[in-house]
Design a protein that fits this description.
Layout: E1 26-29, E2 33-38, E3 46-51, E4 56-63, E5 66-73, E6 76-83, E7 87-89, E8 103-107, E9 110-116, E10 123-132, E11 138-147, E12 153-157, E13 165-171, E14 174-179, E15 192-198
Antiparallel strand pairs: 1-4, 1-7, 2-3, 2-6, 4-5, 5-6, 8-9, 8-15, 9-10, 10-11, 12-13, 13-14, 14-15
Length: 199
């Protein structure tokens, strides 16, 4: 296996693939290992962090036995390099049944409840996002409304195109989410990898 790729060009721009029809690949840490969080190829190098078993990683690409993807852990979150053989890819259905969305989903400080909507083929979403800064500095975001998934993608608009908008891609027991920045106060975002935490 090659040494871990280095340098700014080796790290793709961080992002979340939440466009209908766009394939995503989420894997879970399956062995005891560490990740190296890249700081955009800066001179500071990498932050090395333990990777807990079962932690989800959004894979951007693989190179020479290494996978680069979005990782969130105790030491920080962002693009990271991790050995490909330490990961187990999570299979998913591109056209899941509607009830596959139903449940409580959490990620970072997001908590989202998805249930059946008022009309056939719709889902009802209630979400709360939080961001805590220094001291008692806290910012919050809330959203609620109905949406209709297409395949394993849900484009949720709370009221109008300028209101809270969240794009979600369902990948088995995970949801990949990205919002338009209009869902709450500073840094309170519905964004990242959510995991089902309850019915």
């Amino acid at each position: 296996m090659q040494e871990k790729p280095t340098g700014r060009r080796s790290v793709p721009d961080a992002g979340f693939a939440t466009t209908p029809g766009q394939m995503v690949q989420i894997a879970e840490v399956a062995t005891r290992t560490v990740v190296e969080l890249e700081e955009c190829g800066s001179e500071k190098g990498c932050i090395v962090s333990p990777a807990a078993w079962g932690t989800p990683v959004l894979i951007y690409r693989e190179l020479g036995g290494w996978a680069c993807g979005y990782f969130s852990g105790r030491e920080g979150a962002g693009p990271a390099w991790i050995r490909s053989d330490a990961l187990r890819v999570v299979p998913y259905d591109t056209h899941p049944p509607l009830n596959s969305w139903v449940g409580t989903w959490t990620g970072a400080e997001d908590r989202v409840l998805i249930g059946s909507g008022s009309m056939h083929g719709t889902l009802h979403l209630v979400g709360r996002a939080e961001w805590h800064g220094m001291g008692d500095d806290a910012h919050f975001g809330d959203t609620e409304g109905d949406g209709s998934p297409v395949g394993n993608h849900l484009h949720f608009v709370q009221n109008s195109p300028n209101s809270c908008t969240i794009d979600m891609t369902l990948s088995n027991r995970y949801i990949l989410a990205s919002d338009n920045g209009s869902c709450g106060a500073l840094n309170a975002r519905f964004q990242g990898i959510w995991k089902r935490s309850g019915p």
